[in-house]
Design brief:
- Helix content is 83%, strand content 0%.
- It is mostly helical and 457 residues long.
- It has one domain.
- The longest helix has 42 residues, at 2-43.
- Pfam families: MatE.
- It is a multi-pass membrane protein.
- InterPro entries: MATE_fam (IPR002528), MATE_MdtK (IPR050222), MdtK-like (IPR048279).
Amino acid sequence: MKSFHQEFWLHNRPLMLLALPLLGAQLAQTGMGVVDTIMAGRLSPVDLAAVAVGASIFGPMMLLIFGTLMAVTPLVAHARGGQRHHEMAPLIHQASWVGALLLIPAWFAFYYSQVVFDFMKVEPDVANLASAYLRAMSWGLPALAFFQVLRCLCEGSNQARPVLLISVLGLLINIPANYILIYGKLGMPQLGAVGCGYATALSFWFMTIMLGFYVTFRAEYRPLAIFKSWSWPQWLGIKQILWVGLPIGLSIFVEASLFTTIALFIGSLGEVVVSGHQVAFNFTTLLFMVPLSLGMALTVKVGHALGQQRPATARRVAFLGVEMAFLVSLLGALVMWVASPWVVQLYSSDQDVQQLATALIQLAVFYQVSDGLQVNAAGALRGYKDTRIVMLITLFCYWVIGLGGGWWMAFGANPWGPQGVQGFWYGLIAGLSAASVFLLWRLNVTSRRTQLEAVSQ
């Protein structure tokens, strides 16, 4: 036991040191959504519902872009571990072209979101405001995509602190910009939820410019000459990024679109249900940032070990990291259970919204651990560049078990009767639990095979 304890902290201490600034950056960026939700909710339930419904389109599309570009992180980590620094600049250039390509479906989804809202029978006032919110947000899309490319370069190089600092500064820009544009201060018109979109787009551009300056003038990145010249799109480079990254993006998109589809399905149940669901989802997402950051750090650490041709170390790092995620998720579930009645009061003063949100958050306690395990298993597998089977697993668990089972519990002829919005959260418990089992099995298979292949060579 003493030997295990020493090895546990030997590998997990550097993992935590990398994960903490990643966590800070994730919290700061997620904090923009939290700030939007709180400040719009203080204006009116309609504005809160519009932000919630708009976020149900914005979130999955951005995560598709973010997830695909996350291929940069393990590719940079492998190149760093193998001392192949000449690969960095071409990788960043081709990743930027991939990001530009992915903006096309995102813009299309934003500008034609009204069609989706009408199909899902979202209340007209909420649907119109949500569409305007997305169009305002679209001005920040190019900045957001390029920020993700630079962020993955820094994180794959074990340099997460500048991303943290810039993300916090972006949040600090977002808060006063929201205040001015939502409530119509300093001579500006009162834009409500639409003001959230413009304020967030402004913050995205600020963050991207700041991180661009950091990569340009930081001594560590200067030899890479990222911006000295720029290469045109090259199929081999784009293919490598899409081969690793597109399954990651689709996996994350599938998970996020699960919540999106739930939000759209319940759009016809009224403002209180939509708002309560959004408050619960927003708070649980905030706590989910802790295991998510550990998973992102695992991608880097596993990638470094594999780049250095140490598969046994990579396997050990992966499973010790998963064990750390288990402990962290248990703590998060406890916080969620105890704090939910007080936290929901920050989001809305409406008693019905508070009551529903509290009930949903306490349901989320039951999938907190499995969610932490599955995201860290997936993070370790990204370090192995094993992403396509992960995509298939998540597609089955999230959409067939999670969404299908959730719809059956919410509206179907099940033995307990229609459960409404709570039924979808029962589906989440089942889907995420199944994902954790299958992804841990896949991590064991992949890491063992990689280790055996190295021994046989």
